[in-house]
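Students often ask what a holo structure prediction actually looks like on paper. The answer is less mysterious than it sounds. You provide the chain, you provide the ligand, and the output is a string of C-alpha cells encoding the 3D arrangement of the protein together with iron/sulfur cluster.
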Amino acid sequence: MLGAKKRQKIARTIASVARSRYGELKRRKVRPPLDQMVQSILWRYTSVRRGTRALRELKRTFVDWNEVRVSPVPEVAGAMSTAPWAVTSAERIEKVLWSLFQTRNAVSLAILSDLTPTQARTFLQSLQEVSRDLADEVLLFSLQGALLPLSDEAARMCYRLGLIRNDRATLQNQKALMRLWEPGLYPGVALYFVDHARTLCRQDNPRHKDCPVNALCPEGGS
Ligand code: SF4
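The corresponding C-alpha cells follow.
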C-alpha cells in the first residue's frame, strides 16, 4: 500500500476526473430505489452512459417494472440494445424483479423508506442476485446513504493503485477507501469505479494507457 500522501494525491485525481465526467451530485437526478436498482444492474454490464440510456429506454417501452418482470427476456433486452450485454443484464433484472415480487407480493421498493440503512441493505441483499455493492449503490444514489460501494472489480483496481492492502471487497477495505474522500464525493467516485474498474482495470491485460491515473499508479507502466 502506498503512503498517505501518495494515496491522497490519487484520491484527488480520481475526484477531479469524476467531477469533470459526471458533474456534481447536486445536479444529479435522484431516482426511486427500484429505478436505481435496475440502473445499477445495467452499470455492471455496460458503461454509465450506455446504462443510463438503457434505463430510459426501458421506462419508455414498458408501463412499469411489473411489465418488465413478466415480459420475455429478448423483448426486454431488445428495448435496450442489440449488444450481448443487454441480454445478460435483462436476465439479471428479471431475476431481481421476480425475487422482489415473491418476497413482497409487489414489484416495489417503497418499503425502504421505512427502514434504517442497515435494515434496507439487509432487505436488498435478501433478494436474489443482489450483492452488497449493488445494495450500497441503491442506498447511496436513492436514499442519500453516506457510503462508497465497493465491488470486487473496484477492490482489484484500488489495490493495484496502492489505496488498500489487499484486493478483496471487504468492509475493512470499504471503510479505508471511504476515509480518502469526503461523503459529498462518494457518488462521483462510485461512478468512476463503475466505468473504470471492469473495463479498464480488468483482470487480464489492464488498459493502462487509457487510464486517467496511469501516471500515478504503481502498476501503470507509464
Ligand atoms: S494504471 Fe492500470 S493497473 Fe493502474 S488503475 Fe489504471 S488500469 Fe488499473
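The chain is about 60% helix and 0% strand.
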